[in-house]
Structure formats: C-alpha cells, structure tokens
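To whoever picks this up:

The parser on our side crashed when reading a file containing two proteins. I've narrowed it down to the boundary between the first structure block and the second sequence. Both blocks are reproduced below exactly, byte for byte. First block:
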Amino acid sequence: MAAAAVAVPAVLTAILAQTNSPQREYAYLYMAVVAVIAFLRGLWPALLAAAVSFLLFDYFFVPPVHTLTIADAQDLMNLAIFFGTAGVVGFIAGRRREAQMRAESLARELKNANAELVRLNRDQAAAAQAAVRLARTEQQVQLLQQAEQDLRDLLATISHELRTPIGTILTDSTNMLRTQDMNTSVRYRIEGIATEARRLNRLLADMLSLGRIESGALHLTLEPVQVGDAVAAAAERLKRIAPDRKVEWDAKEAGVSALADWDSLGQILDNLLDNANRFAPPGTPISVRVSLEAPGQVTIRVLDHGPGVPAAMRARLFNRFVKGPSDAGDGTGLGLAITRGLVEAHAGSILLEDGPPGETTFRFTIPKSEAQAAS
C-alpha cells in the first residue's frame, strides 16, 4: 500500500515535469490521485500520498521551483486540500470497511438469534427475550444499510466534484495539442498528461456508474434498438483509441431488434471491447457475434484471442477491482462489475464461456424487442 502511495505521485510528477511549463493547476491532478488512493487503499496510504504529492508539487511546480518552501497562502491551501481530501475520503473508506464487518457480524448474530428463537419457542419468557434481541439486531442492520447508502451518496458527490478539475486539465491539454508549432518532445509529454487525465476521468465515471447500479438509482429508457447499430457505434469508438484493432461482425446476423437502453447497451459493448482490446495480441481481431438462441432473448458474444482467464479468477471475475495478472494497468477493475450490473438491469445474464486455449468469449443476453418478434 505504501509503495502505491509513493509511486503513483512520483510517476505523475515525472510526466508533468517533462513539460517544462510548471502550473499550479496541476494540484487538481495530484488531488485526484490522492482521492483515488484514499478510496482504494484507505486513510493511512492516502495521508502518505498527500504528503508525497504536496512535497513533489511544491518542489517541482511552485515558484521558486526546486525548493521546499511555502511561499504564500495558496501553498497552505494546497496542503490543506491534499490532506483534507485524503482524510475525508480515507476516513469514509475506513468507515465503510468497518460497517461491512459490523454488518457481517450482525448478520451472524441475526442467524443465531433466529435459531435460538426456534429452540425456545415453547418457553414464552425466553422467546420474548430472543424476540427483543432480534428486533434490536434488525434495527441495527437497517441503520447500517442507511449508513451504506449515505456513504454511496457521498462518494458519488466526491466523484462528481473531481470531474470538473480533471475535465479542465483534459480540455487544456487537448487544446495545447492542437498547436501546430509545438516541439515534438513537449507534444509527447502533453499527450501523456492528457492520457493520464482520461484514465482518471474514466475511473471517476466508473465509480459513479457502479454507485448508481448498487444503489438502485440506475434509470433505463427501454426502447427497440437495432443491435447492429449499437455494435457499429461501439466498434467505431474502439477504433478511435485503437486504430489498428479490427472488430469483425456480421451486419446480417446483427440485424435484430432488442429492448434496451441505448446508452447502457453501448457501455456494455464498450467495456467488453475495451477488455478484449487490452488482452488480445496485436494484429488479432475481436469478433462480435449476435444470435437468437433462447425465446425472447438476443445473445451477443464478444470473442478475442488473448491469453484467456486463469481458472483461479473465474469465480470472482465480475467482482469490483478485479484485474487480470497480465493487465497493463489501463483498466480500472470496475468494467466487468459495471457490465454485469447493466446486463442484469436489462433482465439479462452474462458469463464467461468455456473455450479452447487462446480464446476468450464473454456472452450476454438482453430481451428481444416485441417489434422484432412480431416481424
């Protein structure tokens, strides 16, 4: 944990330092890094990351550079923001873990109380005492559930607030790249800044999506959607980030209509195509196959020729923050968990199919549109 808290700010500093254009706005990017470490690792790694981030930011980007001085009130504000972000998010993450442990303990107590109530049902006095304990336990469980919901709402708020400074960094760096007379070395480093900002922006977007799914706040606009149109749009989006990756699909077999939310179906396909693109060897295609195998359902498969999924990971593949052993680090570990939530919100299912070595196939189903069924 300590290694990540030191390494991530150091890597970010190495990227920013190469631009030779120190700016105080980089504090927002360091703040986002501290917030993400706090959410993933907890309070103490977050505080360590905040301290390292402030020292690196002050030394490399705050005039006079290459000195550890607090020149004005802005530096004090940066220090307060770093440690404030680490403290708030880290404290919330720690409380969340404690709440989960308490909930598990209370669940065991509830189970024991139920068993005791059955054994003592002939003894009215003992049964009354067990009923009181049961009611108290249920009340505590309800309070913990409310606390969990409040935590999700707070994390969603924090994630939403962080999107604004990250969006500013991404916009500014993208605009700088449009300058025609920029030095090649500087352009390369600014592209690195934009890439890292996109990764942070994606992580925040994934956190918000997962929060909506887990809290039951996901809103779907279900309407007839041409599956072929959704596949074509997803393939085009993948082409923007991986121009050399070919997506193979049959427009005729994909010419079916599904009852789905357009944006959510696009996110499902984006996540699966991105996952395949990260693991498939260069030069190999990704295949998308559409079929009608079960009554009232459209079955979609996304197939790649990557290394496959180790047997030890298959049972927890769709859990949060699960990443493959050969993952290059570009993923957030939330994509498949979000994908499962979106598929299940459509009353469908998703699984990893068994296949030959060197082939990975994800299969998911969504409802078939009645308009298609009637045609």
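<<boundary where parser fails>>
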Amino acid sequence: MRAAGLAIAVALVAGCATLETTPSARVTTLMPDTERWFVLSWEASGEGERRLLTGVIQNSYGDAAMNVRLLVQSLDAAGEVRSQRIEWLPGTVPGFGRVSFQIGRVPAAEQYRVTVWAYERLQGKNGFL
C-alpha cells in the first residue's frame, strides 16, 4: 500500500516537469540546479524596437554542458514578462569554463532576464570521455 502511494506521488511530480512546461515569471527553468551551476551576465545594446543581448555563461561544475537552452524574457518596469523566447546556445560550455553568446532581435524593454532553461551534462573532463 505504501509503495503504491509513493509511486503515485513520484508520477505526479514527474508529470509536472515536462518539456511542455511553459516559461513564465515564476517558471524560468526546467532544471532546478541551474543557479547553482551556471552564472549568467549580459547587457543590451541597440536602439529602436529590437535589442542585441551580449553575454557570458560560466559553468561552475566540472562536467561540460551541451544542448543548453537560454530563456530570454523582456520585462516591463514592474518586472512583468512582456515577451519571451528560448534560444539554443551553440556548442558546449566546458566544465569550469565560459562561453560568450549573442541573442538578437530581442524586443525593447525596461529590463531583461536570461536564465538557463535546460541543459544536458557531458560526463568526463570537459565532456570528453
């Protein structure tokens, strides 16, 4: 009886974190450990309706990360999400390494938020076995 209850609880939790999860002001990642393992910094440039975000992602974990997806959110002055999209980071982010990125055609906004939406770890030194 206890095992069946545990199995149901695990299924419910697993069902909440699917790839169909929609980003929002509160849901900014599919991976609960991203703030622990990645540090992001960026700045916006340009004028008019669109901006260019130029930044760096730093991996503070020993294994490389691949298939990194960044969530880019344009926020108003109150911090409400006005637009968002997910961008793939090309290549890998080496273990204890850093990679620069550029994200173009971001709608002009008061502020921006960039988070790691999802990634996969490569085992071994910098992803090489």
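After patching the parser it read the second block fine. DSSP finds two helices and seven strands in the chain. Residues 22-125 form a domain with the Immunoglobulin-like fold (CATH 2.60.40.10).
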